[in-house]
């Protein structure tokens, strides 16, 4: 009986996977929203990651050239070396957010221990860009005086200790929440469509009239959604590793896969419940996409939840994806198991609750 049960479950699972792969609409509904979010994040990161700046160096002396090099090495600007005329044109055409000018007597003033102003003209059209310049220019000047050592008229010592060993680029940081969104969408869309189609095409009657038990039908539906969702998540994680976006190390590959599995189970359970409740594939696609996107935003998917408004932090505490995003970021980016037990407990309980809801909805749908 066990072998017969497993064969029946596998038959239902295989059929649902084959149908999903052959339906371009399902794949598009699953893949397009995360890709769109990833492109938006990529464009946003390119726009705000490093401010475009025109650097005018009028001093050919040693200190002027050193100051120029420090600006280039600051890694917070996209610098265009320009003449005063070129810089004015770039500034006027809003091709740069600021013009930084190292005056012609900069070396002379520094060596004479006189005030050595560096001129900054900044366009305050956007507070984010403006504040980046306001913070970064004094930082570069501080590095300049530190580099002078004992000869510096201003004694500066900079000591930096990173809390985390690895620097994560803004775009990289956006990749993991997007993977979570992909998993949520895939589980909801795949499972809900596969389930609702049985009623829409009346094949549920054929299944009920067959020797297949109701438990077999339910398990097969859940397993089909889980397998496609989990494998899709693994594929994207591997692709991210190949592109140097996501690189778990050692045991954290395993913890990353466990996290993906928990999210896949959670979203699949919700998908089965939704499909069994509505019985129509067209509305379940729209509802699944909306549910996944709302959960994504409420979990702080487009930022750092700790820096979001307090009301959003309070809501995010009740969203399972919040814990999935946190656990995956710790494992992939920081090789850390910080709060892993808490995150897995919440995800596990939510996955069980979603699966229970899916089973209950499926049983009621079959009974009706």
Write a structural description.
With 368 residues, the chain is mainly α. It has two domains: 12-44 and 167-367, no CATH class; 50-151, 3-Layer(aba) Sandwich (abc type-2 transporter like fold). 70% of the residues lie in helices and 6% in strands. It is built from 14 helices and four strands. The chain has helices at 2-22, 24-48, 62-73, 84-92, 106-111, 127-147, 170-200, 203-209, 214-242, 252-278, 281-298, 310-316, 320-334, 340-367; strands at 51-57, 77-81, 98-102, 119-122. The chain has a four-stranded mixed sheet with strand order 2-1-3-4, with helices on both faces. Strand 1 (51-57), helix 3 (62-73) and strand 2 (77-81) form a beta-alpha-beta unit.
Summarize this entry quickly:
Helix content is 70%, strand content 6%.
């Amino acid at each position: 009986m066990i072998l017969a049960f497993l064969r029946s479950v596998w038959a239902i699972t295989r059929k649902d996977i084959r149908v999903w792969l052959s339906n371009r609409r399902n794949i598009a509904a699953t893949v397009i929203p995360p890709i769109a979010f990833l492109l938006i994040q990529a464009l946003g990161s390119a726009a705000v990651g490093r401010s475009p700046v025109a650097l005018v160096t009028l001093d050919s002396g040693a200190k002027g050239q050193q100051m120029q090099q420090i600006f280039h090495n600051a890694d917070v600007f996209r610098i265009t070396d320009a003449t005063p005329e070129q810089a004015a044109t770039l500034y006027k055409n809003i091709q740069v957010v600021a013009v930084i000018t190292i005056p012609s007597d900069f070396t002379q003033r520094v060596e004479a221990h006189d005030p050595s102003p560096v001129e900054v003209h900044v366009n305050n059209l956007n507070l984010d860009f403006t504040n980046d310049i306001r913070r970064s220019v004094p930082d570069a000047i501080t590095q300049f005086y530190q580099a002078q050592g004992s000869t510096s008229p201003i004694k500066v010592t900079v000591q930096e200790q990173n809390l985390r060993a690895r620097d994560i680029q803004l775009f990289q940081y956006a990749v993991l929440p997007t993977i979570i969104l992909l998993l949520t969408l895939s589980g909801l869309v795949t499972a809900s469509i596969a389930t609702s189609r049985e009623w829409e095409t009346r094949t549920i009657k054929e299944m009920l009239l067959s020797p297949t038990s109701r438990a077999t039908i339910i398990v097969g539906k859940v397993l089909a959604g889980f397998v496609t969702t989990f494998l899709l998540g693994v594929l994207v994680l591997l692709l991210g590793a190949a592109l140097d976006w996501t690189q778990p190390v050692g045991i954290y590959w395993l913890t990353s896969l466990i996290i993906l599995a928990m999210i896949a189970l959670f979203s699949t359970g919700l998908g089965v419940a939704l499909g069994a409740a509505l019985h129509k594939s067209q509305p379940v696609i729209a509802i699944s996409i909306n549910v996944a996107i709302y959960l994504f935003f409420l979990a702080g998917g487009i930022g750092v939840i700790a820096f979001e408004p307090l009301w959003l932090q309070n809501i995010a505490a009740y969203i399972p994806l919040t814990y999935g995003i946190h656990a995956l970021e710790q494992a992939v980016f920081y090789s850390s198991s910080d709060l892993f037990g808490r995150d897995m407990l919440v995800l596990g309980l939510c996955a069980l609750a979603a699966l229970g809801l899916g089973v209950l909805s499926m049983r009621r749908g079959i009974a009706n």
